[in-house]
Amino acid sequence: MDTLDQVRFVTRSIRAKRLHSVLTGLGIAVGIAAVILLTSMGEGLQRFVLAEFTQFGTNLVSISPGKVTTFGTSLGVIGSERLLTIEDGESLRRRPGVEAVVPVVQGNAEVKAGNRTRRITVYGVGAEMDRAFRLRVQSGRFLPPDDPRTARPYVVLGSRVRQELFPGRNPLGERVQIGNLPLRVIGVMESKGQILGFDMDDTVYLPAVRALDLFNREGLMEIDVLYREGADADEMAAAIRRTLLARHGQEDFTITTQEQMLEVLDSVLGMLTAAVGALGGISLVVGSVGIFTVMTIAVRERTGEIGLLRALGATRGRILSLFLLEGTLLAGLGGAAGLAVGLG
Asked: Model's pTM, two decimal places?
């Protein structure tokens, strides 16, 4: 029995038991399709999240208050935290290579305009927020470059807030009240949509010093620094660290570059993609075990056929190769079907 005869024999055997063959190949098809689909979903999620972060640029440094330090004493872990202030941000503005400094305070508050009320996310920021984070104003203007310690009570509305509070009319120049703070509307932002679940249109922007009063806070939640394109992120972080150390006397703050955040995020999402692919791989293993089980049962069911082949002079190796060829062909057909489904 030459190779062509073996192929014909196996093909006839597969056609003779079509349902059996289809169910056997289906396990491999489902496994391969699952691997492709789940891996593609993981990679798609990874690209989406990274794109959401990088739309703000990669030349950003974030400073947050507080740093936990471990000392080699019996006291164990001692946490120290000192507030970040608007003055800290102004000191960073004078560093070479710094293009914008954005103090940030965030919270939720009720905003009222006439007889309309809505609870929204409030961002207390600096006048360069739109430039640092590539935001666009639809009408009016963003916050003016006042002295950040005495900034005027202005507010810029997100597009959804504008629609809810001022439907069908121009809000510029109108007054709103956020909490117990009266403010004048000077701008409306372009629609930005949702970013990682946060609705950027359902927000308002007001000066950071006003937000500190609104939320009864003494310090900022964060300071974001936009530095010159092409500058080294590590050198900029080191320069910021030196400036704040000179002001605070100790490193009671945490500096994170956008590149560091993206590296950590990429690593986490990469592991997630691998884990999702491994789940699909389990389906493939189950399909392979299914083929092994079915072929084992087939051998027992076809003992008469095997005996006839032996009587005709077929060797053990030849019979083994026939069953291996049949299993390989079923796996190949199932794999092709799985690829078609997964890539289609």
From this structure: 0.66
Question: What's the pLDDT tens digit per position in 109-129?
Answer: 999 998 899 999 999 999 999
Give me the domain span that covers residue 324. Answer: 3-49+265-343
Q: Which of 197, 225, 249 is the last residue of a domain?
A: 249
What does the CA dihedral 330, 336, 337, 343 come to, rounded to 10 degrees? 160
Task: Note the pLDDT tens digit of each residue in 277-300.
Answer: 777 777 777 777 777 777 777 677
Same domain, 89 and 38: no
Is residue 213 domain-shared with residue 168, that is, in the same domain?
A: yes
Amino acid at 32: I
Q: Is the pLDDT of residue 338 over 70?
A: yes
**102: left (phi > 0), else alpha (psi -120 to 50), else beta?**
beta
Phi first, then psi: give them for residue 142, nearest 5 degrees: -85, -175
Is residue 185, in this structure, part of any structural domain at all? yes
* Structure-token pair, residue 175: 């007054």
What single-letter amino acid sits at 130?
Answer: D
- Plot region of 282 (φ>0 → left; ψ -120 to 50 → alpha; else → beta): alpha
Record the tokens describing residue 164, joined without a space.
Answer: 């809810």
Cα(183)–Cα(147) distance, integer angstroms: 17
Q: Is the pLDDT of residue 51 over 70?
A: no
What is each CA distance from 14 to 64, 201, 238, in whole angstroms?
Answer: 67, 60, 69
The Cβ-side half-sphere exposure at 87, using a 13 Å CA radius, reads 5
Q: How many domains are contained in the chain?
A: 2
As given in the structure block, the two tokens for residue 171 are 């809000």
